[in-house]
Design the sequence.
């Protein structure tokens, strides 16, 4: 399997084509817009928090298949999760992405483990992180509220 | 007759020795450097290194000589007098030197002929690199002048006729790229310089993508200022050049001040040297200048007419290859139109980053993104594109590799299915 | 116990391999570079070279990683966070970034806390390098603020008590050299930073002559901004650093604009990235950053405590040697006072250029002239002086060679006769 | 003879110590101030031109022994010379100084030939040229007048 095929696994390409969680974020109490200035990719992600859990999540955006599939896989993984768990998963995902592929993902990352190969491509780390950074901002805003 | 450029010159480049199968189509971003350039810089640093223009030692003399000799090499290469070439950090810095100098003049700190006021206009094109746009936005904001521009069409192109509509006696500056770093369009420089003279405007030419690829005679073109970068023309990073007609350079206020650019300094006041040194504050990129000079000499050795002919052939092949792949849309001049060997394109249904990743996997280096030209991309209705750009070492084989890989893109990403 | 510095480290420097008998006492102007630095840069250019921060290719990723890793090395070296180090062309450029950014803020183009108005005061010393004087003169002229300064005595020295007299609640900026490039005086930085905080002024530290020669913890010193140059600390020319407290750097307007420092750009308006990238317009001195990082790592390997101890010994020997020669007058702190290993002096009846020429003839490289400090020299009643300055590779033999040669100067020029 | 001794010949050191032509330039109709910004050396040189000849010449200044002796030797050589001759000598001197010591001086340069060795030291060329540049400016001003 070439680096390219490892990076663009079927799972990732499928999520990119039929993304989960894509919808209108504007109805949620917490929304955040995140931009990758080097390429112009962007995402707006909204969440509703109820009793410390992500009760609802919608995002909209445009970008490469890495950023879009990452948003999709994250939505699947973290909708319904507690704020604490979600923040821990975001931190774990970030650590994996920053490790240039060296840090092995735990089971808790679920399908997001598929981005381990992307982490080897320094310039694509920001693509994979885009949605996660947006969610982190929303969660922090909800904590402060 | 086989061209002497392309494959044969690759032997001069250590990068291609280390990566013989590399398909490097990213010269528009930055070029590889021949051994002659690397060695010029290394030899200088290893044995001759001393402070330039300061002190009286023999070593300083040698270093200063090498430094000023590099200026002559670069000046000669672009048809400028040696007093007309100022070292800058890069082309961006050179453009800022002009815009910031004009801001100083507008604030009363220098020659009034560079001062802008409310009602004055600065004209650019919608295709400009951010480096030739944002400094003018800031100058306009500081002075009350208005920034105006000629818009691009759905291929990213503009015409001198459309430009004429925007230019008026209120125009004080016309700033534009000689060759667009996205579309590859070649601007009619001499005509625009004539138009500027008619209305009494200064011309600022962004020559980043022309000087490395075609014979350019800045004096003959009749522009007032021009900029280009060493790292795009086989030289080191860390240095670029500002060209200005001697008489203008001597009068433009230096925005960056400090040591080595002064005559008499008191606690209250400083007087500045004439050009070029008035703009060269502090310790200069000395070894980089030596490398830059060697790059100009190397290109001169190849002959810029030959370089232009070679790249003309590559340009035609690039256009033909890109247009031959279904679902790929070329930006910029259509086949048969004059253009540089720099081509951007969009792949239907596949994001530029993903295109670039597949090409990278095949050993093909291209550039993806907005290429520091967001307004142009917005006008094209996209956030990013993929760009393949050639240099003296590019070959028709490189283009063929691109064609083959491009043909696989939509299939790989499942857009054809 | 013999110091591990001086003679033993000369083996690391190709320059001293090529010139084993060179007595290089001009490190204050620019330093020689160890092979580790030269190789880091050369290796990077020969094999890894690609555009940084733009595009998505593997090569770009590697180059970007090397570039940002260099920033961490330099930041760690001076006790800064990596977001607190901005690449500049040189230290002069870094000082201009601050002063020009404040000029933009004063013109309404950025955070008001950097805006100066009539009645505001900028304080410097009469001993400053032109790089830490003229940018403030220009800022004052643009904003209507007043430039004030603490004067020097007949040895070129000033005191914090005298500085206190000049500083007032009107003071908005205090800019001063950590170590004077003429007198070798070491300023009481932490005390001045505290004084600045009392009156609500920003501190700008010119650390050009300190960072290469002693442990410097910019975070711990409590200054707001600082600058230093790579080429004085064993690194390449073409790059320097601006340090700023993260919170300030994120707010200071970027004077130089262009590509790579933006988020969203339209034809009307541009938004800028946070620090450090907001100040890094256009293609950066990439290989130079890699070299700069290697220089910081090399010095860290020697240990800055050891470097300081070594140079302390050289400083004492320099002072002793200079004072031992009849007719030679030392500028700066007297024997026994704290100082850097950088000594300037005047030879009675012999012009500095002539002194330097004789020393050069003996293979001793020093610097002659006003050292970019005309006001200081004017205060001393001379136009120029001779400066001997040491580095990690300097030895007591170097100092002895200087002593012997100095002893011959007045005789050769017939002043003793 | 070392490079140093070649540069600082007895002749040069003598002129530096007891310079010719040093006096108050301010009484002359044409005066020019010339500065070497890299070291602060300066000279003010005044001339009176009568019937196309340098009828009077005085200079004042401060600088190294090269700049001062050069002013002195030039004064000796060119006081009384015709404007045309003086301009030609200045040009010849400049050419020699710029040649890094390669151009041999003609007899017309007289004692100024002694600066051929200085020309090998690029950083000192400006010192030797200082007075000559000032005289050139005066002569050109007198032509324009
Ligand atoms: C104290 C001081 N400040 C500023 C500078 C300017 O440094 P650079 O020429 O690298 O910009 C120097 C060196 O020339 C210096 O010694
Ligand atoms: C047309 C054009 N202008 C300006 C620039 C900026 O050049 P640099 O990044 O070397 O300052 C570039 C390259 O990025 C360019 O292609």
Sequence:
């Amino acid at each position: 399997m070439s680096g390219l095929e490892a990076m663009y696994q079927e799972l990732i390409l499928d999520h990119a084509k039929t993304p989960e969680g894509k919808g209108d974020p504007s109805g949620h109490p917490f929304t955040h817009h995140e931009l990758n200035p080097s390429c112009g990719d962007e995402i707006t992600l909204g969440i509703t928090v109820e009793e410390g859990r992500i009760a609802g999540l919608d995002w909209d955006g445009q970008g490469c298949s890495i950023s879009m599939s990452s948003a999709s896989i994250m939505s699947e993984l973290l909708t319904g999760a507690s704020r604490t768990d979600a923040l821990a998963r975001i931190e774990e995902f970030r650590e994996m992405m920053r490790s240039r592929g060296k840090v092995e993902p735990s089971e808790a990352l679920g399908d997001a483990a598929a981005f381990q190969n992307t982490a080897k491509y320094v310039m694509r780390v920001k693509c994979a992180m885009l949605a996660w950074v947006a969610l982190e901002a929303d969660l922090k805003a909800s904590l402060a509220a | 007759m086989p061209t002497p450029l392309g494959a044969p010159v690759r032997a001069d480049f250590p990068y291609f020795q280390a990566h013989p199968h590399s398909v490097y189509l990213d010269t528009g971003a930055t070029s590889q450097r021949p051994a002659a350039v690397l060695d010029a810089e290394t030899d200088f640093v290893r044995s001759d290194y001393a402070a330039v223009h300061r002190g009286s030692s023999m070593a300083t003399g040698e270093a200063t000589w090498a430094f000023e000799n590099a200026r002559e090499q670069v000046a000669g290469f672009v048809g400028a007098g040696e007093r007309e070439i100022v070292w800058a950090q890069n082309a961006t810095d050179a453009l800022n030197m002009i815009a910031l100098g004009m801001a100083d003049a507008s604030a009363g700190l220098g020659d009034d002929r560079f001062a802008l006021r409310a009602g004055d206009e600065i004209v650019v094109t919608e295709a400009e690199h951010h480096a030739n746009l944002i400094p003018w936005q800031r100058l306009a904001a500081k002075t009350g002048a208005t920034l105006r521009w000629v818009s691009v069409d759905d291929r990213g192109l503009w015409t001198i006729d459309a430009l004429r509509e925007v230019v008026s006696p209120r125009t004080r500056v016309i700033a534009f790229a000689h060759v667009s770093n996205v579309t590859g369009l070649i601007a009619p420089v001499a005509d625009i310089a004539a138009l500027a003279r008619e209305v009494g405007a200064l011309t600022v030419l962004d020559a980043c993508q022309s000087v490395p690829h075609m014979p350019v005679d800045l004096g003959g073109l009749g522009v007032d200022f021009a900029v280009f970068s060493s790292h795009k023309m086989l030289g080191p990073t860390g240095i670029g050049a500002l060209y200005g007609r001697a008489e203008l350079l001597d009068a433009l206020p230096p925005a960056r001040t400090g040591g080595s650019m002064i005559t008499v300094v008191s606690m209250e006041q400083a007087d500045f040297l004439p050009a070029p040194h008035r703009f060269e504050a502090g310790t200069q990129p000395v070894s980089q200048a030596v490398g830059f000079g060697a790059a100009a000499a190397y290109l001169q050795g190849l002959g810029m007419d030959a370089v232009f002919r070679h790249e003309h052939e590559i340009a035609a092949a690039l256009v033909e290859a890109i247009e031959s792949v279904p679902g790929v849309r070329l930006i910029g001049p259509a086949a048969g139109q004059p253009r540089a060997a720099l081509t951007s394109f969009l792949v239907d249904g596949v994001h530029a980053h993903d295109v670039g990743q597949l090409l990278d996997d095949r050993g093909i280096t291209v550039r993806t993104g907005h290429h520091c030209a967001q307004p142009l991309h917005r006008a094209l209705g996209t956030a990013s594109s993929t760009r393949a750009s050639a240099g003296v070492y590019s070959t028709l084989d490189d283009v063929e590799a691109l064609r083959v890989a491009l043909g696989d893109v939509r299939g790989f990403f499942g857009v054809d299915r």
